Amino acid sequence: MWLLSPVFFAYGLKRILDGTRVSALYDWTGRYPWEWSNSGGKPRIWVHAVSVGEVVAASSIVSALKQKFPNSWLLVTTVTETGMRAAEQRVRNADALAFLPFDITPFPKWAMERVRPDVLILTETELWGNLMHEAKKSGAKVALVNGRISDATFSRSQTPLGKKVYSWLLSHLDICLMRSELDAERILKMGVAPESVKVVGDVKLDQPQVRLSESVKASLRSELGLFSDHLLFVAGSTHEGEEETILRVYQRLCGFIPNLRLLLAPRHLERVESVMAAVRSLGLTPVRRSMCTGKPLRQNEVIVLDTIGELAKLYALAAVAFVGGSLIQRGGHNIMEPVLHGVPVLFGPHVDNFRPHAELLLREGVGFQVKDGNELFEIARKLLTSEPLRRTIAWQAEHLLARHRGAAGKVADAIAELINCR
Predict the structure, then answer these.
(1) What does the pLDDT average to over 132-155?
(2) Angle at which helices 355-364 and 181-189 pack, to 10 degrees?
């Protein structure tokens, strides 16, 4: 009956037309393979990560859990197609990958019957009410991991209606493993019992140094048409309202730094054509990443990233990076990705989703917050014209990450303690 619903059909069709694989239709209804219910392995663990950024965190968690429980059976779910592709690339030790079922009865119930998890692990802000409710009914524990409470979420939770909604949602959680003291304080104010809240650190910071070898970087630079003396400015996860600002800043910077080149990576691939049009409107020539064959990149050419799963790697080629969703009110995106490569990162004022990260990077001198295009130009020029400064920032980034490693292991330990209490 649900499959015949016009709303369900229209939404599913839109998702598929936007690039989601057709097989997702079965996952959305919770109709996972029945053989999953009989597959071996204990404990049975379900980890959910909504999209690419959360998959990065989940990859470390999954690795730690597999080390802790080598005989476990582990499912990773995601919501977006880009998240699924990232999971296929990064979470190779999961036993199964799937899309999250729609949070509409009876889909979560059908999913639970097939997965039969001992523990459901939700990352960051993924509080799906019906899914958690069915998990508890099935006897599973429910954990929030790398818990993040944004400014907007916290504000909503303090309204009369929000208090009722979040009280019900949070009542399903057996443990909340938060990424920072600020997030822990907020979830406590939202009504979670103190004994259920722990600060374990940010799993997104608990990533191995992902520095590419010099040979790999040289190969990538050659593909993109970059000479050895070219400086690359990478602007990642950008949104409408940001690209024009970045392009104008790039044009100004070229007046001081003739060997500068720009790579633009829109947050959503369906916007590639509109971003290319924006590039042309300013008298520049867009070049699709997928069409880069080694032809020397000229100053008036701008690479537009139209591939999935490459941005995190391409940050390694950058002299300076900007992470979007932050000059406009979108809450920002993963400002840590460039830092993993020792690259100085710039971001706008709107980083509500990554406030602890932003404060940490600003405090450590690895990140730089700008309010508009003029500040972006000034700070980018300072960084691009000083190689010693960039080297110092790379050293600071390496030591910063070293101090925050171990969060994924703490998560695995807490999950072990949780499910052994059953």
Answers:
(1) 94
(2) 150
Tokens representing 304 are 């537009």
Q: What sign for the dihedral angle of Cα 393, 395, 397, 403?
A: negative
The Cα–Cα gap between 143 and 418 comes to 9
Distance, CA of 361 to CA of 202 (rounded, Å): 13
Q: State the average pLDDT over residues 388-402.
A: 93
H helix and E strand count, the chain: 17, 14
What is the distance between the alpha carbons of residues 49 and 410, in angstroms, rounded to a whole number?
18
Helices 129-137 and 107-115: angle between axes, nearest 10 degrees = 40
DSSP 16-38: HHTT--TTHHHHHTT---GGGGG
pTM of the model: 0.72
pLDDT of residue 6: 62
Q: Which amino acid is at 5?
A: S
Helix (H) / strand (E) element for 160: namely: helix 160-170
Most confident of 147-161, 197-211, 229-243: 229-243
Q: How would you write 165-221 as a 3-class SS string?
A: HHHHHHCCCCEEEECCHHHHHHHHHCCCCHHHEEECCCHHHCCCCCCCCHHHHHHHH
Contact 395, 339 (CB under 8 A): no
User: How far, in Å, CA of 47 to CA of 246, rounded?
Assistant: 37
- d(Cα 315, Cα 215) in Å, to the nearest integer? 16
Split at pLDDT 50, 70, 90, the class of 1 is very low
Spatial neighbors of 78 by CB under 8 A, at least 6 apart, are 48, 49, 50, 51, 54, 55, 84, 86, 87, 97, 99, 100
Long-range contacts formed by 150-154: CB under 8 A, 24+ apart? 150/125, 150/331, 150/352, 150/353, 150/355, 151/352, 151/355, 152/331, 152/352, 153/125, 154/186, 154/189, 154/190
Beta bridge partners of 78: 99
Q: Are the CB atoms for 350 and 331 separated by under 8 Å?
A: yes
State the first-to-last Cα distance of the chain, in angstroms, to the nearest integer. 37
Tokens of 344: 């100085």
The pLDDT of residue 13 is above 90: no
Rounded CA separation 135/104 (Å): 14
Q: How far apart are CA 18 and CA 270, in angstroms?
A: 7
Structure confidence by residue, pLDDT tens digits, 94-120: 999 999 999 999 999 999 999 999 999
